[in-house]
Amino acid sequence: MIVDDRNDCDHSSKNEPEEELYLKGLLDLCHLRRFVSAVNRDENKIALEDRKKYFKESIDKIVTLKNLLDEERIKFVQENKGFDKDIKRILSSENRFNTWVMVEGEYLSLYKKDKDLFNRFCVRAFDTGIEEAEIGAIDYFWLKQDYTELENRLINYHQNLKVFNYTSINRILFPLNTLLRNVTDRSNELLRMIDKLKKIDFNCPHKVKCKLVENDKGLLEFKEI
Questions:
Q1: N or C: which end of the chain has fewer CB within 10 A?
Q2: Cβ distance 99 to 89 under 8 Å?
């Protein structure tokens, strides 16, 4: 319910913490309850029996929604505790990369049960300082079609990238092209990023030199030079 409101409605920027969304939902239900109570108390043009029926049905629905909000909040809190435990494992490990690979495998093994669990973990992990989680975090916002945050994450990836090669750019090519396909109002930062990438000569597979070029659909692809 919390995530559906964030992703399907126009009630938010789609990127607020779950706790903030929970409080927003709770406040909306409080406002709705006051409205229902006011109708029951003051709307004299409606028959008393009809007002009582409306009040009972509405309050029952509000209570059901409140219980659902509470259940989802508990789920998010428990999930984040699990994320934080695994993040601590990685950050405190003597061999951080190997521990990352192990934790990554544990989350990916649960893919059939929860398809974006790993990507939710990656968002929290990368924002906590685990660089290896960045691609998974980018993919989360691609999967959720949150193109504003996807653009921000792609620009940040480009700005912090230490090695510009075929592999590092190919990893983000699909979400980048998804962004280009769905967003026409592009920021100057994104346009500058694309221009810089087009100027690079890459060593593509099979020892072939290639460049990023724009195809007839306005999307980017590697092309041999």
A1: C
A2: yes
